[in-house]
Write a structure and sequence with these properties.
This protein has helices at about 1-30, 35-40, 120-125, and strands at about 55-60, 70-75, 75-80, 85, 100-105, 110, 115, 130-135, 145-150, 155-160, 220-225, 230-240, 240-245, 255, 310, 325, 335. The strands form 5 sheets. Strands 13-12-11-15-17 form a 5-stranded mixed β-sheet, with no helix packed on it. A 3-stranded antiparallel β-sheet has the order 1-3-4, with no helix packed on it. It has a 3-stranded antiparallel β-sheet with strand order 2-7-6, with no helix packed on it. It is an alpha/beta fold and about 350 residues long. The protein is about 10% helix and about 25% strand. It is built from 3 helices and 17 strands. The termini are far apart. It folds into 2 domains: about 50-150, Immunoglobulin-like; about 155-190 and about 200-275 and about 290-344, no CATH class.
């Protein structure tokens, strides 16, 4: 009977091992992002070359416009000949792969995942419209999907020249546990005491955090571009570098930051080692004392905030609420009102 069981179990175990290996292999294949054919086979993606396409359209789900330096995802909607619609992967959460589409953009750029980016320098897009054209190479007869994207300036811009954060202190090392005492004898005819447990060693102290970095001095110049919809031209200079911004005071802001860097966090003190237990015997040995925990390190001191000097044109004064300043740990910002020529 035992021989019969062993003979029948061996094939079953082999089948189980083979099935498990197959399932594991399939799971690993599915986890690989490059396994396109597997995703298509499972219905997670589609090949447009094998899909009957009637038309395509493109949109920006995050809104119709884009600001300098902003990123915004595109979504392409594909309508099949039976009226069914499918969308692109990524922001569209659909089955259409971006690699099956050709995207051409002017003023802005589009990456391989359908994310649109407008250059940070406002001079590149000033007075222009970003434009996107999309085609399906596998269906050359399908009309091109096009989208004009206006540039907006009612955006929360940030110009950050704050100091760097201090380095975190290293944690202390834990103490060693004491050794257990040796066992004695509890035989009433031949008793012997148990050995005492060894003492645990102390944990070491955590290292103090490093100090935060000091912020740079920042110069801000503000001019007004007058018109039916006034805009603020802003130049921010620090560390020998200039940055330009075009801000719509109706909903847009520019925050200039020159905060001192935060101090690094102190390291955790090491845990004291536990005392070893006393050995059994008559009498039993005493347990060793535990080591002391190490002291946690102190947080590093914050850095100094940088000075901020703002020079603004008198015509820009009614719109200065759109400019926000932050220089924690530094002197109060200084303002100068004097004529400022257009920055570009």
């Amino acid at each position: 009977m035992s021989r019969f069981r062993s003979l029948t179990l061996l094939p079953i175990r082999g089948w189980i091992n083979t099935s498990f290996a197959a399932c594991l292999g399939a799971a690993l294949l599915l986890a690989l992002s490059g396994c396109t054919s597997m995703k298509v086979h499972l219905g997670m993606k589609v090949y447009l070359a094998k899909t009957p396409v009637a038309s395509i359209a493109v949109n920006l789900p995050n809104g119709p416009g884009i600001a300098p330096g902003e990123k915004s995802a595109l979504v392409v909607v594909v309508t099949e000949t039976d009226g069914k619609t499918i969308q692109t992967e990524g922001a569209g959460k659909g089955k259409v792969m971006w690699k099956d589409l050709t995207v051409t953009a002017t003023v802005a750029t589009v990456n391989q995942k359908g994310v649109l980016t407008l250059p940070k320098d406002p001079r590149i897009s000033d007075g222009k419209l970003a434009h996107v054209s999309i085609t399906v190479p596998s269906h050359p007869d399908i009309h091109i999907a096009e989208l004009d994207i206006p540039v907006r300036y009612n955006y929360a811009f940030v110009s950050n020249y704050s100091g760097s954060a201090g380095s975190s202190g290293m944690n202390g090392s834990d103490g060693m546990d004491g050794a257990s005492g040796s066992s004695g004898s509890m035989d009433p005819n031949n008793p012997s005491p148990g050995g005492n447990g060894g003492n645990g060693t102390d944990g070491s102290n955590g290292q103090d955090g490093g100090p935060g970095g000091d912020a740079s001095a920042v110069q801000v110049r503000i001019a007004l571009r007058a018109g039916s919809h006034p805009l603020l031209q802003v130049g921010v200079s620090a560390l020998g570098k200039d940055k330009l911004y075009l801000v719509d005071p109706q909903g847009g802001t520019l925050t200039v930051k020159a905060d001192g860097g935060p101090g690094g966090s102190g390291g955790r003190g090491g845990r004291g080692g536990r005392g070893g237990s006393g050995g059994m015997g008559t009498p039993s040995g005493s347990s060793g004392s535990s080591g002391s925990d190490g002291r946690s390190g102190f947080d590093g001191s914050p850095g100094k905030g940088g000075s901020i000097t703002v020079t603004y044109d008198p015509q820009a004064k009614p719109y200065m609420a759109a400019i926000r300043l932050s220089n924690k740990g530094g002197p109060a910002p200084v303002f100068h009102e004097e004529p400022v020529a257009p920055l570009w």
